[in-house]
Design a protein that fits this description.
alpha/beta; 294 residues; 5-stranded parallel beta sheet; FAD/NAD(P)-binding domain; 27% strand; 6-stranded mixed beta sheet; 17 strands
Length: 294
């Protein structure tokens, strides 16, 4: 697909947020909407999240991640959105100019509005300041799902899951799909981070849930052999395992913002969002909220 020199709205990121935004803007009458996606396939994280439930709000049915992603792409194409694949945004400039890198090399697009839909990242071990050596078997949920659903690989058999956000419970479904049996889920707070009824899910999978427990250290040379955890009382214990799965604690993917002239929010780690909020409030106010997504 040829790269346009101009467009009305350029959306950086072809995941669910970017595709849904593009589709809705077309439905609202915006003529030229372009999605810039660095991967070879649009759809974002759900492409390698092979379990349900996705799509209940948008499509009124329960879908797997890949089916949901494909449905979003189908809706965007049907609405007339132009999706450019294998296209990375390398620089944001003033006055809406965007520098991109594609198979054709570097080029620029002049746009009226740029929407950043670059998503978030889970906080890895390095940022969490967990001590110990650096053996194999330490992953985030995103890396696990990519290995399991896209590469059909099993990175470990008996991991410890760190965190209790919604994505943490998603990792339980991924582990079950791959035949992986987590030995524990630990959460430093007094209750799970996800909705309270999710606290019963680990028991259904035979995984002990340890609240008010934090990870202290990871042991192992070539591969993880155990972790040391501490209770809120100060008592410490070792849990034998062959992997550690860090889940949640999401932060914005804001590299483009840091390298641009945009204001940067030190508290959230992302861009200051006053203009996007006003823009989409206006779009929502002028739209028919009862209209089906696709």
């Amino acid at each position: 697909m040829s790269i346009p020199e101009t467009c009305d709205v350029a959306i950086v990121g072809g995941g669910p947020a970017g595709l849904a935004t593009a589709t809705r803007l077309k439905q609202l009458g915006v003529k030229n909407v372009v999605v810039l996606e660095r991967e070879a396939q649009a759809g974002g994280i759900p492409r390698h999240c092979g379990h349900p439930p996705f799509g209940m709000r948008e499509f009124k049915r329960v879908l797997s991640g890949p089916t949901y992603a494909a449905k979003l792409v189908e809706c965007a194409n049907k609405a007339g959105v132009k999706i450019l694949l294998n296209t990375s945004v390398v620089q944001l400039h003033e006055q809406g100019k965007v520098t991109i890198s594609s198979v054709n090399g570097l080029s620029e697009i002049q746009t009226k509005i740029v929407v950043l839909a670059t998503g978030v990242r889970e906080t890895p071990r390095s940022t969490r300041l967990v001590s110990g050596q650096r053996p194999m078997g330490i992953l985030t949920t995103g890396a696990l799902q990519s290995m399991v659903y896209l590469k059909q690989k099993m990175p470990f058999k008996r991991p410890v899951i760190i965190g209790s956000e919604l994505v943490s419970f998603s990792s339980l479904l991924t582990c079950r799909h791959a035949g992986i049996k987590p030995v524990a889920m630990i959460e430093p707070n007094r209750r799970v981070t996800a909705r309270h009824y999710m606290q019963f899910m680990p028991a259904l999978f035979g995984v002990p849930l340890h609240l008010e427990t934090r990870l202290v250290a990871i042991s192992g040379e070539d591969r993880v052999t155990s972790v040391r955890v501490a209770k809120s009382t100060g008592d410490e214990t070792n849990i034998d395992c062959d992997g550690v799965l860090f889940t949640g604690q999401f932060t914005p993917e804001a590299a483009l913002v840091r390298m641009s002239n945009l204001a940067f929010d030190q508290a959230s780690g992302g861009p200051c969002a006053i203009v996007p909020i006003l823009l989409f409030y206006r779009c929502w106010k002028n739209s028919d909220s009862s209209r089906p997504f696709c």
